[in-house]
Amino acid sequence: MQELGIVWPALLAGLLVTATHAPLGVEVLRRGIVFIDLAVAQIAGLGVILAAWLGFPPQGAAAQAFALAAALAGALSLNWTESIWPEVQEAVIGVAFILAASAAILLLAANPHGAEHLKELLVGQILWVDPGALVLVAPVYAGLLGLWFALGARLGRAGFYLVFALAVTVSVQLVGLYLVFATLIVPALATRRFARARLGACWALGALGYAAGLALSLVSDLPPGPLIVCAMTVLGAALFALGPRPAAV
Q1: Range 2-242: architecture per CATH
Q2: pTM
Q3: If both were cysteines, with which of 65, 69, 137, 224 could 217 make a disulfide (CB 3.0 to 4.6 Å apart)?
Q4: In terms of Cα–Cα distance, which of 141, 167, 175 is closest to 72?
Q5: What is the DSSP letter of 127?
Q6: How far apart are CA 249 and CA 154, in angstroms?
Q7: For residue range 19-50, what is the model confidence (pLDDT) as tens digits?
């Protein structure tokens, strides 16, 4: 029973991230900017690290504000580069990611707990999600989903980048950068041949990936983040292999 008490907030966090990231992942794949979530998540993480470097507590409101400001600035910058260099946008996103990652390493270089902070940013601590935090972030996710489904393409490119930045800023501090990327891309990639019920399949795949990874973590005592990524990827590969076939030419 004690184990279930630890797992249910983690599973709920995964379901919330999946609910928000599945439609965004389909759009990211359609736009061909697959690594945008890594870049924006890394930039948001850089904001948290900068706040800690300046002396603010890493879980406080100031760190959240730094993360959000950094993510929004990064998203708006990437929106601008897409408008002027659309043919090399994926390369620009890659440069943004590696620049933010390098800056984070430099800020953490003098911190005796720097390696631990970097690991938390990448892998996350999903098993230690605070249920109180879920109460706060659930309305944010609901608002972003409502905005997305209400406006969709009418948000435009800038609107998409802003919604994306808000979602990733919340998610990377819940589950870590690796899980944010996997939840965004794996379901969208596995269902790319689906002509119908694609979003439902994405949601189901994400939920099963989180449930399977957390269950494996309980029985193996291995870290849940990498297990969830592996479980979701294996399930995604199976869904892609067993799903709709391409139409014959």
Answers
A1: Orthogonal Bundle (1.10)
A2: 0.84
A3: 224
A4: 167
A5: G
A6: 34
A7: 999 999 998 888 888 788 788 888 988 888 88
